[in-house]
Amino acid sequence: KRSVYSESKIVKENSSDPTKFLLTPRLDQLCQPKPYHNSFAQDRPTPIWAVSGGAKGATASSGLENLAKPKSIHREWVEGRPVQTVVQQSALQANASQRLEALATPKISTSISQENCDWDYSEVSSKISPAAIKAIASSRVEALAQEKQTHPAYQPPCPVQSIVSPKTMKAKA
Length: 173
Prior knowledge:
This protein is mainly α. The protein has helices at about 10-15, 25-30, 55, 60-70, 90, 100-105, 130-135, 140-145, 165-170.
């Protein structure tokens, strides 16, 4: 069986041994090690350098010491606690005060007549002036209100499920 490289120029140039790999000039260039920077010094001293006496005797501020402390867990955290919480019996039997009951009632707007109407009054209503109702939009406003048209060359996406012809289904490889 022929090598997978049989069609490449590299093997054709070396037809005597098709499995021997010859480097092109570009591959040879890529195999070269990266050159050192101009200011790189091979014989530089150790990365350990001298520390000044002032830096050795420096003390950390209280803010810095506070930042250095590890994050503490919540004081009420309990290991192995179930996810569901148990509601205390006193909370289940509690009665709401009159003030809490008053705060819990929905606000009724007096400006809206809710009698014999199917309108959802949870929305805010506003009074529209008769001049605004009779207003006519200019041609420029109507032009701006038009929806953006798609590009003439736009093609909608293909359906996810494509139809395969019966001839294709019967084809043999």
